[in-house]
Amino acid sequence: NAGVTQTPKFQVLKTGQSMTLQCAQDMNHEYMSWYRQDPGMGLRLIHYSVGAGITDQGEVPNGYNVSRSTTEDFPLRLLSAAPSQTSVYFCASSWQGTTEAFFGQGTRLTVV
Amino acid sequence: GENVEQHPSTLSVQEGDSAVIKCTYSDSASNYFPWYKQELGKRPQLIIDIRSNVGEKKDQRIAVTLNKTAKHFSLHITETQPEDSAVYFCAASRSGAGGTSYGKLTFGQGTILTVHP
Fold it and tell me: Within 10 A of A43 (CB to CB), how many other CB atoms are there?
């Protein structure tokens, strides 16, 4: 049982480049979320999904897109990377919104 | 939307002392309050949670209290050990009307706890 798997673990992008952060879970969880973690600011919600085909914006959605075509996968797309998007990104999944959230190992992204 | 404030931002204690971290929330409809521990370079992991129909919950050296009227909840760690050193996050979320969950977990800013041997 792998849990929540994120790839890649590290990534360096040039300003203006695009990329997709992958997230997959094998626990049949309905809820999946993406957070970014910056020093002193906790975990801020970017986008979340309550099931396949349903997504919604979180606190800091600008510059990011998501889709949820299957229960297992929830990729996060950076459309045109900016230095302000340098951060550690975590994907999480849970059975419901009010149950334990399981996090992936994180992706450390640097935009230069 | 929900806003969660967490204090203090850093906390330093001697081994064996108690540590208390406090959080306040703004949305009176929030009904689920988990606490996560994040060790350096690792992912956050749930250590304890409490629901709005309970005032206190305890798990060995860790306890959480909830005051719905004042909209605040606290994490209490007794007999601290060096391995308790980590960043601790509080969070809040709520179920929707009719039992539908929103899946939207709002986190506090985190507390860096250092336990000195």
Answer: 27
Residues whose CB is less than 8 angstroms from the CB of residue B82 and which lie 6 or more positions away in sequence, other chains included: B15, B115, B116, B117
Answer whether A94 sits within 8 Å of B103, measured CB to CB. Answer: yes
Could you give the C-alpha distances from B110 to A37, A44, A67, A71, B48, in angstroms and in order? 10, 11, 29, 30, 15
What count of CB pairs under 8 Å joins A to B?
Answer: 74
Q: What is the pLDDT of residues A12-24, one digit of tens each?
A: 999 999 999 999 9
The predicted-structure confidence for A37-77, as pLDDT tens digits, reads as follows 998 788 999 999 989 999 999 999 999 999 999 999 999 99
Dist CA B95 CA B112 (whole Å): 29
Residue A38 and residue A84: Cα distance in Å, rounded? 10
Name the β-bridge partners of A35: A45, A90
Residues of A in contact with B105 (CB under 8 A): 33, 45, 92, 97, 101
Angle at CA of residue A41, ends A40 and A42, nearest 5°? 105
Interface of B with A (CB under 8 A): 1, 6, 9, 31-32, 34, 42-46, 49, 51, 89, 91, 93-95, 101-110
For the record, the structure tokens of A69 come out as 């075509």
Q: What are phi and psi for residue B70, nearest 5 degrees? A: -85, -5
Distance of CA B96 to the CA centre of its chain: 22
